[in-house]
Amino acid sequence: MNEIRIRDGFPGEVMYVVPRPMLENAASHPLVHPLTPTDIGWFPNAKYHYRERPEGTPEHILIMCVAGEGWYEINGTRQKLLPGEALIIPRQTPHAYGASQESPWSIHWVHFIGAIGDYYVQQCERDQYTITVAPETAVQMEKLFCNCRDAFIANFVLQRMIYASQTLHHLLGTLVFNNRAFSPLLRSSNFHSLDETLNFLHENIPAHLSLDEMAQHAGLSRSHFVRLFKEQTHYSPMDYFIHLKMQHACMLLSLSIMTIREIAYSIGYEDQYYFSRVFKKTIGVSPVQYRKNTHNFNGLEMG
């Protein structure tokens, strides 16, 4: 008896394909062109699911297994795909894949093209096609898959395609860079999250925090703290804190009627002229010019 194999048509499935003439128009937009989702779907309990493409596809393919299991075959080698794993198949790569007969997989999937898509695919090592997905990352990715699929409901509307593209960018970034099971920094045994310290700095923008106080909050020695901070943010702790202060100052300059002196004092600078020098060095223009530029941009009149 021949094995049953079907491409789609599973109870509860969702599948959207952008008509290629519409895709060509949308893909010319600068926010869509670097990363363009072309097809997307959700196949729950996809019994007998099977696809074989001897020539590959023009698009990259991402499949994330959330239940059951399946298999894939690339370069003559067959491997399992289990829950908590994502499969990335580069474009033009001959392949086949399918659901397990005993425990059919439930999968989110998307096809995509563009230079940003190429970049993400290249993050996998040569001849490695799967990425382990940490449980908390899988939760985030499922939400992003759903958001991306929802955007496809009106994929003939350019704004929806832009949203789908940006959501896919977030999804791929989450998989590669915010996934402790894959991201080199996050999976390091020496990794020490600085999220609480970053929140601490944000909550204390008006304060005069010293480097020792920051390190003490992180529970690290001063030298260890500085090294980890630079590794994770590419800024020294003090430079990062200054940037936070200047970012807050930008918001106040744009959205409030506070004077420059008042703004300087509110973020911990008693000397408004020193604040202005630091602001210009960091932002590129003086506080006065920044306020003028943003008010003119927003169509506001200067008093």
Structure overview:
With 303 residues, the protein is an alpha+beta fold. The protein has 2 domains: 172 residues, Regulatory protein AraC (Jelly Rolls, Sandwich), CATH 2.60.120; 103 residues, Homeodomain-like (Arc Repressor Mutant, subunit A). It contains 12 helices and 10 strands. β5 and β6 form a beta hairpin. The protein is elongated, with a radius of gyration of 25 Å. The C terminus is likely disordered.
Q: Categorize the overall geometry.
A: elongated
CATH superfamily of the largest domain: Regulatory protein AraC
Give the overall pLDDT as a whole number.
89
Q: Which CATH architecture of the largest domain is right?
A: Sandwich
CATH fold title of the largest domain: Jelly Rolls
Number of strands: 10
- Write the H/E string, N to C: EHEEEEEEEEHEHHHHHHHHHH
**Structural class given helices, strands, pairing?**
alpha+beta
Helix proportion:
40-55%
The major β-sheet equals: 6 strands, antiparallel
Count up the domains. Answer: 2
Q: Span from first to last CA?
A: 84 Å
Radius of gyration: 25 Å
Low-pLDDT parts are 299-303
Level-1 CATH class name of the largest domain:
Mainly Beta
Given the structure, what is the number of helices?
A: 12
Neighbour order of strands in the largest sheet = 1-2-9-4-7-10
Q: How big a fraction of the residues is strand?
A: 15-25%
List keywords for this structure.
alpha+beta; Jelly Rolls; Arc Repressor Mutant, subunit A; 2 domains; 4-stranded antiparallel beta sheet
